[in-house]
Design goal:
Elements (H helix, E strand, L loop, with lengths): L15 H28 L7 H25 L2 H9 L8 H7 L11 H12 L2 H4 E4 L5 E2 L3 E8 L4 E7 L3 H22 L1 H5 L2 H16 L1 H14 L6 E2 L12 E5 L4 E2 L3 H6 L4 H19 L1 E3 L7 E3 L5 E3 L5 E3 L2 H15 L3 H10 L9 H15 L12 H14 L9 H17 L5 H15 L3 H32 L9 H36 L3 H20 L7
Helix pairs in contact: 1-2, 1-7, 2-3, 2-4, 7-9, 12-17, 12-18, 13-14, 13-18, 14-15, 15-16, 19-20, 20-21
Length: 556
């Protein structure tokens, strides 16, 4: 049951004059920043690049970002949420803006109890009927709601989350203002025309609307509880639907240490590396496997118990990745681990990350450069990969190439950025890729139809290699013949070198056959296909025998 009754009074609304004033302030904040940066870009458009020009724009971006941050902290509401959202959009904003917005905290002055109590009693009835104790001092206050500590009549300690007064009309005013800003930017700026700002705004509106509905948050909490129930190191607080409504959410009170409080963790003999690894494994499961993830993993929403378990709080913002997108994310993940620039670019395009005006050849070269710079030869050797530096270089790629993070993945990107920051803060030497490698190995086979499906792809790849060898050899010889390649080989040594090359190619082909047939036979044996397995082992044996007996026979 719930205490919310049909015909209950609506939430208190801002007066129309305050709504108009708020819309005016939000619009002028954004338009003012855009005009100042646009005017500076116009006046400097013909000046050559120089350290002085770079310094000028860096100072300009920093000043405007500070202005935005200060105004957001003053206005509260969605403006803080917008700033936090933009702080992860390295594809949209220059680095000085990102640096300033990352300092923006969703920690505002709490609303007075005299305004909050009427909301509680309107939703739940007289407080003494629902709660034995209710502390009037909030535990935390954010831009959309604030949390109080209380106790039910059976003594159970609970945390009660209540919407801030006037928040619904405040959010609607902010959304109207943002819609005006997006329309103006899309119509009058190249920046707005280059990025799909309407999709970003639509995703932002969806997430915020869900976050305002605490019944939705209650459902999100139960959804994630079911999803992570097999992970013994994660605690999802119990919810109390009978004491929850669309504007009030009651759940079990959970005490713990904020995940970023490193010294306090050490004082309680909690290994920060273990905590970081648990957080990474949790998100790898949510993003790569279930497709349901907590979209706001800032330090206030992840606590650590004294036995090093993670307490996950606040399910107002969750993301859901459909199966097709999840498969492409896994494909991207595997492509990075295999240094396959073509596959990585294809997965990015399938996810909508590459804009139509992109120079795809140039993009692939830059992706290959990044992969070559950080790559280890095998998945088992990925321990040497500096993932933090790779992410930093990838941010630069986002800024210099026509790439954007699609609106539906905006909060995923923010969550990953926050999580990587938390993990490296807990253990600067943590090897994130070492944690990723087992997942990548598994995805390679799972996403290709299981073990047998993977074997099929291996055989197809080997076959393609064998088919391409004659054509590749022909092209190389034609280039030599046409003078496009210079072959500096003394004729005295020519015969022996040709013999060596011929033997090497034959040996390579023989090895491919032997290894391929043996691999298929082993996979079939593991899956109890004994007859087929024996046949492929026999083929491997004959391939080896043929190569051994006839090796070099056709050369004089």
């Amino acid at each position: 049951m719930t205490h919310e009754k049909e015909g209950a009074l609506p939430a208190a609304q801002l007066s129309w004059t305050r709504v108009v004033h708020r819309i005016y302030r939000v619009v002028t904040l954004f338009v003012g920043i855009i005009l100042r940066i646009g005017w500076a870009a116009f006046w400097h458009r013909n000046r050559p690049d120089s350290p002085e020009k770079d310094a000028f724009f860096e100072q300009l971006y920093t000043r405007q970002a500070i202005k935005f941050r200060q105004t957001a902290e003053q206005l509260g509401g969605l403006v803080i949420k917008v700033g936090q959202f933009l702080s992860s959009r390295v594809d949209l904003l220059p680095k000085p803006f990102i640096d300033q917005l990352q300092a923006l905290q969703d920690n505002v002055k709490s609303a007075p109890w005299s305004q909050v109590r009427p909301i509680l009693e309107q939703e739940l009835g007289p407080l003494h009927e629902s709660f034995l104790i209710f502390d009037e001092k909030p535990l935390a206050a954010a831009s959309l709601g604030q949390v109080y500590r209380a106790a039910l009549h059976d003594g159970t300690e609970v945390a009660v989350k209540v919407q801030r007064p006037y928040i619904e009309s405040t959010v609607q005013a902010d959304l109207k203002a943002l819609s005006i800003v997006v329309n103006l930017a899309t119509r009058f700026t190249r920046f707005g025309q280059a990025f799909d700002l309407f999709t970003v705004l639509r995703e932002f509106r969806r997430v915020v609307t869900e976050e305002l509905n605490y019944q939705q948050e209650l459902a999100n909490t139960e959804l994630i509880r079911q999803d992570v129930r097999h992970l013994g190191y994660v605690i999802v607080p119990k919810t109390y639907p009978e004491y929850s409504t669309s504007r009030v959410l009651t759940m079990a009170f959970q005490d713990g240490i904020k995940i970023n409080q490193l010294e306090e963790l050490k004082q309680h003999h909690i290994n920060p590396t273990v905590v970081a690894e648990e957080a990474i494994h949790l998100y790898l499961h949510m993003v790569m496997e279930s497709g349901i993830f907590h979209a706001d993993p800032h330090p206030g929403n992840i606590l650590v118990t004294k036995d090093a378990k993670l307490i996950l709080l606040d399910y107002g913002m969750i993301g859901i990745i459909d199966q097709a997108s999840r498969k492409q994310i896994r494909r991207l993940f595997v492509a990075v681990s295999k240094r396959n620039a073509t596959e990585l670019q294809a997965s990015m395009e399938a996810l909508g990350m590459v804009r139509p005006d992109a120079d795809r050849a140039q993009l692939r070269r830059q992706i290959q450069y990044l992969l070559d710079r950080y790559y280890a030869e095998t998945l088992d050797e990925l321990k040497s990969l500096d993932l933090v530096a790779l992410l930093r270089d990838f941010e630069n790629l986002l800024r210099t190439q026509p790439i954007q993070v699609p609106g539906q993945f905006a909060f995923l990107g923010r969550a990953i950025a926050i999580l990587v920051g938390l993990a490296t803060g807990l253990d600067p030497d943590i090897n994130l890729v070492e944690l990723f490698a087992p997942y990548a190995k598994r995805f390679v086979t799972e996403d290709r139809g299981g073990t047998l499906g993977y074997a099929k792809h291996v055989v197809m790849d080997m076959t393609k290699t064998l088919v391409d060898l004659p054509e590749l050899s022909h092209r190389i010889l034609k280039q030599v013949e046409n003078g496009e390649l210079e072959a500096k080989v003394e004729w005295k040594q020519g015969t022996s070198q040709l013999h060596s090359l011929y033997r090497g190619i034959r040996g390579l082909i023989q090895s491919i056959y032997v290894v391929g047939f043996s691999l298929i036979a082993t996979l079939l044996l593991v899956h109890h296909h004994d007859v087929l397995s024996g046949g492929f082992y026999l083929l491997a044996f004959f391939a080896f025998l043929y190569g051994t007996l006839f090796h070099g026979r056709h050369l004089p």
